[in-house]
UniProtKB/TrEMBL annotation, chains A, B:
A GO molecular-function descriptor: methyltransferase activity
Annotated GO biological process: methylation
Chain's gene name: mtaB
Keywords per UniProt: Methyltransferase, Transferase
Keyword Transferase in annotation: yes
Descriptive protein name: Methanol:coenzyme M methyltransferase
Automatic annotation (TrEMBL), chains C, D:
This protein's name: Methanol:coenzyme M methyltransferase
Domain of life where this protein originates: Archaea
Domain B12-binding N-terminal: 36-130
Example of a GO cellular component annotation carried by this entry: cytosol
Gene that encodes it: mtaC
GO molecular function, a single term: methionine synthase activity
InterPro entries: Cbl-bd_cap (IPR003759), Cobalamin-bd (IPR006158), Cobalamin-bd_sf (IPR036724), Met_Synthase/Corrinoid (IPR050554), Meth_synthase_dom (IPR036594)
Amino acid sequence: MKRFTQMEYKDPDEMLFGHAKFPVKIRENMEIGDGYVIPEINVAPGEGTEESKEKMVSESRNIAHSASERAVNIGLPAFILEQEHISQQTNNPDWTAECTKVQIEMLEKYYDEYGIKTALRATPADIRDEEKDSGFWDSDLFNKVIESIEACASNGASIVSIETTGGKSVSDYGIARGDPKAILFGIGVLGSMDMEYMWNKIVLICKKYDCIPGGDTDCSQANTAMFLAGGLLDKDCSHTLAALARAMGAARSLVAVECGAMGPLKDCGYENPIVKAITGVPISAEGKNAVCAHSDLMGNLMAAVTDVWSNESVYHREEMGGTTPEVWLQATGYEAALMNTAIETDNGKILRDLYTLTDKYRDPQALVLAYDNAYRIGQAIVEYGDDPYLRARAAALEAGAIINEAVDAKKMYLTRFERDSLDSALKTLEKLPTESDKFIKDCIRRYSRKIADFDPKNYEL
Amino acid sequence: MKRFTQMEYKDPDEMLFGHAKFPVKIRENMEIGDGYVIPEINVAPGEGTEESKEKMVSESRNIAHSASERAVNIGLPAFILEQEHISQQTNNPDWTAECTKVQIEMLEKYYDEYGIKTALRATPADIRDEEKDSGFWDSDLFNKVIESIEACASNGASIVSIETTGGKSVSDYGIARGDPKAILFGIGVLGSMDMEYMWNKIVLICKKYDCIPGGDTDCSQANTAMFLAGGLLDKDCSHTLAALARAMGAARSLVAVECGAMGPLKDCGYENPIVKAITGVPISAEGKNAVCAHSDLMGNLMAAVTDVWSNESVYHREEMGGTTPEVWLQATGYEAALMNTAIETDNGKILRDLYTLTDKYRDPQALVLAYDNAYRIGQAIVEYGDDPYLRARAAALEAGAIINEAVDAKKMYLTRFERDSLDSALKTLEKLPTESDKFIKDCIRRYSRKIADFDPKNYEL
Amino acid sequence: MSYEDLENRINQRNVFLRYNVELEGPAIKPEEDEDVVDILPNDEPFKSIALTILHENRDDAINIVKKSLDEGVSPIDIINEGLMKGMDAVSVLYTKGIYFLPDLMLAGDAMMESVKECEAVLGHKSETKATVVSFVAEGDPHDIGKNLILMFLRAGGYEAIDLGRDVPAADIVEAVKEYNPIFITGTALMTTTMTAFPKVVEALQKAGLEVPAIGCGGGAVRKDFVESFPMSVYGVEAYHTPKLADAILKDKKDWKDLRKEYVDIVDEFVPEYS
Amino acid sequence: MSYEDLENRINQRNVFLRYNVELEGPAIKPEEDEDVVDILPNDEPFKSIALTILHENRDDAINIVKKSLDEGVSPIDIINEGLMKGMDAVSVLYTKGIYFLPDLMLAGDAMMESVKECEAVLGHKSETKATVVSFVAEGDPHDIGKNLILMFLRAGGYEAIDLGRDVPAADIVEAVKEYNPIFITGTALMTTTMTAFPKVVEALQKAGLEVPAIGCGGGAVRKDFVESFPMSVYGVEAYHTPKLADAILKDKKDWKDLRKEYVDIVDEFVPEYS
Ligand SMILES: [Zn+2]
Ligand SMILES: [Zn+2]
Ligand SMILES: [Zn+2]
């Protein structure tokens, strides 16, 4: 496996939405990252549709139908439908197969009738159980996940993604307690190990069926920190610590690309700008048009260097303005259109900078993802590129440095809680061993005792 | 009453979002149109809350609470809450009074606690009945509307608006049948007459209570055409005819300002850019962040010269990302933030042009509202400023000319239906009498026979 | 860079497409559409009468109808063999997306006025398949949807009673007593007015009245809401209305059947029902 | 203009404000908060024990507790007069927005480990007010919300049984038989997993079991959904849980009461219930 020890982008200013170093081609005519931004729509099946295969298949078809119909009705040149599968689908690979098939049929019908460029990203659920003795890498549930991925690829999905959950029990423990060591172990070590294990398998399956291995996201870890961090008034996770977790998440999500994932990386990976800076693969991102799913403090900034623009997720139901696939595809589609107009008129970089500067100093989490700072974190990662632990640690330290510089420049203002937790986290991280083995041994001892769900055997440790 | 016979803006390029010639000051510190864009959130009471005053008051309080809480949590410097009242509220002015009171209390609580700038726009429903012998200008229902407006103003509403419906039966008839004469009579003549009657009264009430008379919208007429026109695949109203109706709507909505309305004009008045070009008052607009309520083909373009940015309307309920007041205030707030960043960095005009050019040639309706073309329509209106009929006709003819020029320049492409209905409408409009009296007499004869609900006596004709 | 310079740089196709323009087929005369050919009568004066409706030509329609009546042609035949066939053809072109709403409304106007001429000779109202009552929910001022429904029902051969906008439940009870409809349609644009529908059902039940079904539709109306009370069926498109009425009339379907068999009855893919 | 030039032009206050920074009051020591002063014991060793919990200092807590136990202080008193008081104070600071989640979790860890020391001397589990069972819905892997609830319940003096994530209804039935809880809490992040709640209720009913209430909450969970089946109450904030449990325990409230009196029970403005 090739580890990244150099940046594919040579200058952060090279990065721009709609442009990736290595565009990804879907069918004959959709090229992701080749000079335009493509909207992505993701709709969660409505309650009750999990009750039977028949209902789920019909729900999947309806979602694809609504999205396609609206796309044509408002004149979108292209769009990607993402379907994040729920556990019942992944648990039953034949559901996955059938749902994928009807969605691809619907998308192709619209392509044939109208010439609209369409693609399906299918995202099975990571239904594995991290508990002790559960056989994280070798169990019935694990096999279902792999079978479901194959069911997607073999039934025509254009892109396959997954949100793997390796190390979540440990990172959750750390996030809830403000323990940067646990977060680093959970994301940087266990998360990266699990990614490698899973993505080597996924890429092989995709190759067999000429399906694009899309990429992963640190949703289960760094996004847990972000969601708990919440808004300015929330009190559950320090926003500085969430920023460090995000930087670590980049070192982890990078592994999918190292295993052969080609992008577009998955929308909810807020670490994607960092991974793009390192690897040059196209990414998907979400922000101000994902308010249906969650609130973040960087809704404009996340658009700055993305190639695909997503709504994250929304229940399937009706609004005044139409069904949710219609409403939210229109929302992401209109923003993508603005970006494409900026590209067409050679104002892409100005719009990129406006997006970025709108949010850059609103929150430490936004700050470290501004494309210039994302690039810096990328550099810190590739410097230690060969060692997943050290590069995740370096990413977090660089994120801390970025925040501290902005505070010193009086551009970023922190609360006491943010200030204290950053200081204490950096102190802890700096003192950690510089050898991976030593760190891992220490963490195994410490956290297998404290965390009921953490079982080193799951990771062959 | 002062009729506008000159443009307040001397050059379309002077127009920019967040900037109005005559900013409107609310309380000590919110100035609308004074160099920044303010988000507006509008949430419709949930089903069942119309059953009792108690439920409606509590619903109103909750909406204000959710919006305020999210605004602070994401750091918005300012926002406007609009409450469009439902018929039960306007029918019961004591409901209106109490709902307004609790909303203002909530907004002031947040202002006091956090310093966030807040304002309430209260919009009673036009519950009058246009049917024959209904006493459109002098009935119980009419009195309820006036009492409700007073209840808003006297209970602390910062801004009062209304969507008057004068002439709707005639314009609806015309829109459904593609009859430009009926549309012109319904909007340009009856609509303008009703506006004058209503707004002279509203402005007097507002003055009494130091409340801002906001403005009106041609929602009941030009928006009916727009909604029926729908998307590219819809077949109910020609998009060229909808564009002409919109131009006429500007001549009509202008009347509120002539009567003393100060802005911000109401969000759903897609004709607002034209009225702003003429009058210099701040406007509210809606577009890509109003997908919750409806689909339009100019979601970016409508932001180009607006001072307040709205979501139009959404049911009050929960989404994954929070309650709808939270979710949609965040949506409009993030777009306003992007505009404000553009203003701060002196890139306002570039973003304005990107917004505009994204949509300008997508649809004839968008084309005539691009700020340069909106300005041209404004000029056509003020040329005949003294005569409501002639100026509405001039607006429509100018809109037609704008579309034809773009077609000739091969920038705008029309379907046969659009082409035919534009040609036939322009032919009809050109042949119309140049004297208002003659036109009105002719229309009264023609349409009182054909339209069951149209009663000239309602307009003292 | 100036606005004009920017404008000239854009390849609009990379931002938005106008699929309606891209996909427009060649213009054909409405009477040449293959489905219309099947519907139009071959014999005169019915063919000419049907064509005036198809061409939305009110004045010609009335003239030919009057002339035919003068010549002794049966008013019933003129209605059924001429006017209704023309209107059938118009409906077909509308549902196929070739005709537009104004075509439908203008043809409908021409048909209704021509029918009146026939009824004048007949001395009474012409026979219809059955009666349907249509209203807009109390508190709701938007009636274009309802007017569309009226037009489809009349085109489909039904007597459609128009109760207007903003109709209280009591008025609907009265109308049911008076007209004994096989079907009621209600429309609402707002969530806070769609709540009028269950109140109508309640009022009917209190009055001891039953109707095979009440079709509820319009902007804000959601299927799950409509199905939360009895007697109702969620209507998706205005042009589905006569098909639902036919199912009630011919196949004795009630609201429970309509909910279950909606897709079969309207005979097309309806996401809301699948 | 370069990115840096643009950046330097912005007055951030015209775009977004950081209200959390703007409004931060002066730092005070947690033990000086007036509500905390009311809670903390005055006598030693309880005061010192409570302070170690308040300061989230696990090692010190265990040390002082061990020392006190060695000196013959009653383990029951240490728990009730020392550890629980400290934890009460932590909960108060958390609900006041002065303490944060990590404070709560670390203090909770310190308390739980110290309680274990006392129980070792006691020879059995310490007494709690009552037992509550907590689970994450079947199919749902997200358990931070549930862990928060566990911590609040334990801080509130309850025995909180942790059934973990992704729990089938059958396991909950078994747990109810085994623990006879006065309250069950279930959390779900997804709409398609919250549908597990009514299934749990059904399974309990089938097994002939009843529980005063099942609190249902979490990301995707909506009040209207929760109230569409019996035994349930929609929970808004994790820290409401011990208050709901208290209402069941002391005032014999059941799910119907909790739905009606939620605001009074949790004693704050809750938009979802007003
Ligand atoms: Zn995710
Ligand atoms: Zn997602
Ligand atoms: Zn409106």
